[in-house]
Design a protein that fits this description.
By secondary structure, this protein is an alpha/beta fold. The chain contains 14 helices and 20 strands. It has helices spanning 21-32, 43-48, 51-58, 76-82, 94-101, 108-115, 128-132, 134-145, 171-186, 218-229, 256-266, 310-313, 332-342, 384-406, and strands at 9-14, 36-41, 62-63, 86-92, 120-124, 149-150, 154-157, 163-167, 193-198, 203-206, 209-211, 233-238, 249-252, 272-275, 282-284, 304-306, 321-328, 347-352, 364-371, 376-383. Bound molecules: cytidine-5'-triphosphate.
């Protein structure tokens, strides 16, 4: 997990919908990510989930009464609003949305929003017909035009037993959007376009078979998420089947040839390319239109032809920061150094893909970074998210050196 939320002050507004139970999950996720959370609740919300529950999770003040004499704050909603970095209202009912659109300040949630100048995310949750009602649509549009970030609602089963649009988006996704928002406000990669490839490409043999490798794509996805959290404009070119992270431009591909086309196109105006994909080096000369039948022969020979080397094709672009991975099963250092030079990379991340506890398919990786300044850094065994942070730090350092040299 990235550290973007460490010590961030977030106000969580909870209003009276059955989805209020999910606010407990969101509070736990935010807390785990290192944020300080103050909770404000409407009276309706306290009927669904108790202030005590949220206090026990956040270890912070929970404000459910505008006129609480026991509070240590001077004027609760104003003090809270002043010291926060972001407000998230999850769930936001139709009633709360209407109040916010019209400047009401009659409960801890609405009063705090009115007193605040920080970014505000709202996550609507209501019956489908209430959401479709033109008055709600108008209120939501009003809030959007004032800069509120509106997430969801999603379609699915509703508490009424009906299906429709009105379900609050899941807490895990809200967390992702909160990170995205912070990245876009103050991330150190803000304004930079970063292209990252992920997964093992698939080279088609016939309609039911392909050649591929063991790469899961986890490393590329961790890099994409970390770069997004740090404010980069991320394009994820993926041959993996893992669902796209929130807030990145996701381009699914299959073969090495597909990946080459997309990566070359995206790199025209990119600042950074990280090739974390395990690109197949070979592809069948012929793709059979129909399923290949077994026949009588015991041995099948398939002719393969080399795929284009995507990184090598970009080797003449000096403005692009190029990061490659070296997937090795022996001679890690020398093979990685060779790739650094031959592919004209700025950084190569060398990893051993023959061991079960790291690299392909694992949540962890042990990477050694070699850079074109002669630097060598053993990152040790880390989660792929932790390793991503270190790789991005190294990219930043190399960019600084390059920009000094160009001055
Ligand atoms: N790569 C690429 N295009 C290819 C093959 C690899 O851009 N056709 C990139 C990979 O994404 C990786 C780096 O080149 O960032 C090194 O890939 P790797 O598989 O380790 O090595 P190869 O260059 O394929 O060489 P070898 O298989 O001989 O080790």
């Amino acid at each position: 997990m990235s550290e973007i939320l460490n010590n961030k002050r977030i106000i969580m507004g909870v209003t009276g919908s059955i989805a209020a139970y999910k606010s407990v999950i969101l509070a736990r996720l935010l807390k785990k990510a290192g944020a300080n959370i103050d909770v404000v609740m409407s009276d309706g919300a306290t009927r669904f989930v108790t202030p005590l529950t949220l206090k026990a999770i956040t270890h912070q003040l929970v404000m459910s009464d505008m006129y609480d004499l026991k509070s240590y704050l001077k004027i609760n909603h104003v003090s809270l609003a002043e010291r926060c970095d972001l407000i998230v209202i999850a769930p936001a009912t139709a009633n709360t949305i209407a109040k916010l659109a019209n400047g009401f300040a009659d409960n801890p949630v609405t009063a705090t929003v009115l007193a605040s100048r920080s970014p505000i995310i709202i996550c609507p949750a209501m019956d489908g017909h209430m959401y479709e009602n033109p008055v709600t649509t108008e209120n939501v549009s009003k809030l959007k035009s004032r800069g509120f970030i509106v997430l969801g609602p999603e379609s699915g089963e509703l508490a009424s037993g009906l299906s429709g649009e009105g379900r609050m988006i899941e807490p895990e996704k809200i967390l992702e959007y909160i990170k995205l928002t912070f990245g876009q406000i103050s991330g150190d990669f803000k304004g930079l376009k970063l292209v990252v490839s992920a997964g093992g490409t698939r080279e088609k043999l016939d309609p039911v078979r392909h050649l591929t490798n063991r790469s899961s794509g986890k490393m590329g996805y961790a890099l994409a998420e970390t770069a997004r959290d740090r404010g980069a404009d991320v394009v994820l070119v993926s041959a993996s089947k893992i669902e796209s992270p929130v807030g990145v431009n996701f381009i699914p591909v299959d073969s090495a040839k597909d990946m080459e086309k997309v990566v070359l196109g995206e790199c025209v105006d990119a600042d950074i390319l990280i090739m974390a994909a395990a690109v197949s080096d070979w592809t069948p000369v012929n793709i059979n239109d129909q399923k290949m039948k077994k026949g009588d022969e015991d041995i099948l020979e398939i002719k393969l032809v080399k795929t284009p080397d995507i990184l090598a094709r970009l080797s003449t672009n000096n403005n692009l920061i190029k990061v490659g991975f070296a997937a090795e099963t022996e001679n890690l250092d020398s093979n990685a150094q060779k790739k650094l030079v031959e592919k004209k990379l700025d950084i190569v991340a060398a990893n051993d893909v023959s061991l079960a506890d790291r690299g392909f398919e694992s949540a962890n990786n042990k990477i050694i970074l070699f850079d074109n300044q002669g630097g060598e850094e053993d990152l040790g065994m880390l989660t792929k998210y932790q390793a991503s942070t270190k790789i991005l730090d190294k990219i930043k350092a190399i960019m600084k050196i390059k920009s000094k040299r160009n001055r």
